[in-house]
């Protein structure tokens, strides 16, 4: 859920054709079922839950041609509400147990994403995607590139 306002560059000059500032609401909920390890020193983990509410705000810059498209997104994403996962861990050999907590990531992130698409006629396409998230406590990045042949 969010809102955006597109501003089109009609002059034909510049690297991008459209500039779109935006604000979003992003909610995540995840559940890990309980499980038991196998082996000589196995442990039992109770189920756990995570939820996070973030409000990313940023700008999307894009350019479209007849047979290609690319865009870049830059955003700042503060986490406004979070519940980190925690569970009870039990060592099955002696029934000793303790609380295990999930990592507490930094609550602010800088995110950059870029995508490109190029048509190679009616039968083939090329695409590429890149994403990077920087937090004070972690970094995350991914790259995806490929092609598609239609027949």
Automatic annotation (TrEMBL):
Transmembrane annotation, as ranges: none
Lineage: superkingdom: Bacteria
InterPro entries: Autotransporte_beta, Autotransporte_beta_dom_sf
SUPFAM superfamilies: Autotransporter (SSF103515)
Domain Autotransporter positions: 1-151
Coiled coil: none
Protein name per its UniProtKB record: Polymorphic outer membrane protein G family protein/autotransporter
